[in-house]
Amino acid sequence: MIKVGDTLPHTTLMEYSDVEGEGCSLGPNAVDVAKASAGKTIALFALPGAFTPTCSAKHVPGYLAAFEAFKAAGVDEIWCVSVNDAFVMGAWARDQHTQGKVRMLADGSADFAKATGLVLDLTAKGMGVRSDRYSMLVKDGKVMTLNAEAPGKFEVSNAETLLAQAKA
């Protein structure tokens, strides 16, 4: 399992874009984790799935509400990573109104989750391999803090915990 001091795995996530921009077209765009995290401080949180109850009602809204505080604490970007495809993450981004605040990054084949070792096997519930629920503060691609949840819990990966760590 990834730990404090480790570098983020060299994987590619996908991000759905509704607006064309520099280097990105409409639809899914590849995000090279190493390049996208280089030289930045990132508040990264991961969760089992888009549109799921805790994720939609608590996890994402907490980070949205704390956006300005994260910026004031020196965080350049907030990333939400989930084992869903880019189209689902794009729809969830629109539903949660994350544009310009939280990057909704798809880990469609669970490559990032597997590489971190933070995997939740929900095959018995018909959901396949998913990401554990966790948060981490990342500086220049290196994990500075890691808050992994116990199964079924939402106690340490919330925005408040990570924000306090970013301010420290």
Description:
The protein has a single domain, classed as Glutaredoxin. The strands form two sheets. A seven-stranded mixed sheet has the order 2-1-5-4-3-8-9. With 168 residues, it is α+β, with helices and mostly antiparallel strands. Helices cover 30% and strands 30% of the residues. The two termini are 24 Å apart. It contains six helices and nine strands; from the N terminus they run ββαβααβαβαββββα.
Features:
7-stranded mixed β-sheet; globular; Glutaredoxin; alpha+beta; 168 residues
Q: Give the number of helices.
A: 6
Ranges with pLDDT <50 over ≥5 residues? none
Cα(first) to Cα(last) distance is 24 Å
Question: Main sheet?
Answer: 7 strands, mixed
Count of beta strands: 9
* Domain tally: 1
Tell me the overall shape: globular
Taking all Cα atoms into account, the compactness measure Rg is 14 Å
Structural class: alpha+beta
Report the average pLDDT across residues.
Answer: 94
Spatial sequence of strands, sheet with the most strands: 2-1-5-4-3-8-9
Proportion of residues in β-strands: 25-35%
The quaternary state of the protein chains shown equals single chain
Q: What do we call the CATH topology?
A: Glutaredoxin
Topology:
Layout: E1 12-17, E2 27-32, H1 33-37, E3 41-47, H2 53-65, H3 67-72, E4 77-82, H4 86-96, E5 102-106, H5 111-116, E6 119-122, E7 128-131, E8 134-139, E9 142-148, H6 159-167
Parallel strand pairs: 3-4, 4-5
Antiparallel strand pairs: 1-2, 1-5, 3-8, 6-7, 8-9
